[in-house]
Design brief:
This protein is α/β, with parallel strands linked by helices and about 450 residues long. The protein has helices at about 5-15, 25-35, 55-70, 75-95, 110-115, 120-125, 170-180, 200-215, 235-240, 255-260, 270-285, 300-310, 330-345, 345-350, 420-430, 435-460, and strands at about 140-145, 185-190, 220-225, 245-250, 290-295, 315-320, 355, 375, 380-385.
């Protein structure tokens, strides 16, 4: 940086928040301010004066960015969130112009704006001697898709199933990359498909990762997403010894759970398998969280399904709305109303920590914009959001990803925000398929609504 950092910060903010600034000027100013803030000791100013709301896209982006910074966000994060807002407003305008979801319609011109600003992190880094903390990989976990094989074909699961397994060398390389992270605690996540179809490989990689973390003075932990078919008491005992938490799916009682869980072997009963897995985890002291997925046709039974999970002995629950399906206002109101009722009915247990409802603390919305990192079975690196609609991907869908895992030198050099997740979904899906355009916009709107509802219930600004 050749100019005075404090002046760069001040001038960048003035440019971003100037009345009448267009979207490019807002983003240029935010990036300039972020570059200056990276070299200035202390936090950037929180009390920013946004322009008046004149209805223009630039003004709305500037006001949104100022509000985020006022809540403690970074200037780099404000640039990312301003781009997310631009894409959302642009898609809303497109669907008003063509409710059928014509993928060629772009009345707000945000498609070209996103193309121009896709590299905004690199623009912030220009001239800086080192990468600032706000542009270091914020993630402390990496998810590896151990296999695409699975014993179930859940109707709401978007992941394409197959016979591919991730080679041992790729699993090891993923673990080694994560270990380059500077954070004192790092978590390796196993998913699929069904990762416990390769239990021996999961345990081998976990032991290797834990040993590597110990050598570096770091704490290692693990998270494993499983359908429960392979979670025997012996496996649960071994995973508990590694410091692993498992995620299981339980949608309610037997009829509710099996409604969308379709076993490859028709003789199998998914509900019985899940119950046995929960019992094994409880008996062997394996920390576990149950994910309860609601669809528009099952949302009315959510409170009863939650009560059933408690009856089974579950004490940590995340409640998800199914992605890839349209949520109309009554269904969405039923979902947020169910969350509110569950929180009120179990307020004492939630306050004491006896019961955990992840929606009230750890879940990030909109859930479809998942900017976590994942390694696919072929060794390529992706954002998790790519799997949100994978089973609906258009035949001419653009090949996405961040290249081969082997090309990444250091974990902390990776950076992608929610904008990159959103832009990825639009490029691969919505700008090629009208129906998916409507669904994706609906799902992001649902997530925004859920986030506002949860913030209000917590008393957040």
């Amino acid at each position: 940086m050749t100019t005075d950092p404090a002046a760069e910060l001040e001038h960048g903010l003035a440019q971003a928040l100037a009345p009448g600034a267009d979207p490019d000027a807002v983003l240029e100013g935010l990036c300039r301010a972020a570059r200056g803030a990276a070299c200035v000791e202390g936090d950037p100013p929180r009390a920013l004066t946004p322009p008046a709301d004149d209805g223009s896209l630039g003004a709305r982006m500037a006001r949104h960015a100022a509000a985020l910074v006022a809540r403690g966000g970074t200037l780099a994060g404000a640039a990312d969130d301003a781009l997310v807002l631009a894409l959302y407003l642009g898609e809303a305008a497109a669907l008003r112009a063509a409710p059928e979801g014509d993928p060629g319609i772009d009345p707000a011109g945000v498609r070209e704006l996103a193309r121009r600003w896709r590299d905004y992190p690199a623009r912030i880094l220009e001239g800086l001697p080192e990468r600032p903390g706000a542009l270091r990989n914020p993630r402390r976990n990496l998810q590896v898709m151990v296999t695409r094989r699975c014993q179930l074909r859940c109707s709401y699961c978007p992941v394409v199933k197959g016979e591919a397994d991730t080679p041992a060398a790729v699993l090891d390389a993923a673990a080694d990359l994560l270990l380059t992270g500077a954070a004192p605690g790092l978590r390796l996540d196993f998913s699929g498909g069904e990762p416990l179809l390769r239990t021996d490989e999961v345990l081998r990689v976990a032991e290797r990762f834990r040993a590597g973390a110990e050598e570096r003075g770091k704490a290692a932990s693990f998270y494993l997403v499983t359908n429960g078919f392979g979670l025997t008491p012996d496996v649960a005992r071994q995973l508990a010894g590694l410091g692993c938490r498992v995620e299981l799916s339980l949608d309610g009682d037997e009829a509710t759970h099996n409604r969308h869980k379709r076993p490859v072997d028709p003789a199998e009963n998914p509900y019985h398998r899940t119950r046995a897995a929960i019992e094994a985890a409880s008996t062997e002291g394996l920390p576990h969280t149950v994910v309860m997925v609601a669809t528009p046709d099952t949302v009315a039974s959510l409170p009863a399904s939650f009560a059933h999970a408690l009856q089974v002995g579950v004490r940590s629950v995340d409640i998800n709305y199914a992605i890839g399906r349209e949520w109309d206002p009554p269904a969405l109101a039923a979902f947020t109303g169910a969350l509110e009722r569950i929180a009120a009915d179990h307020a004492d247990a939630l306050r004491s920590g006896e019961l955990v409802l992840g929606n009230l603390s750890s879940k990030v919305e909109p859930a479809v914009l998942n900017a976590e990192w994942m390694v696919d079975t072929d060794g390529s690196l992706h954002l998790m959001t790519e799997w949100a609609l994978e089973s609906s991907r258009p035949a001419d869908g653009e090949e996405l990803g961040f290249g081969p895992l082997a090309a990444v030198a250091a974990w902390d050099d990776l950076f992608a925000g929610r904008f990159h997740a959103y832009h990825t979904l639009l490029r691969a899906y919505s700008w090629r398929d009208g129906a998916l355009r409507r669904v994706l916009h609906n799902n992001i709107g649902a997530g925004r609504s859920v986030a506002r509802h949860l913030a209000a219930s917590r008393g957040a600004p």
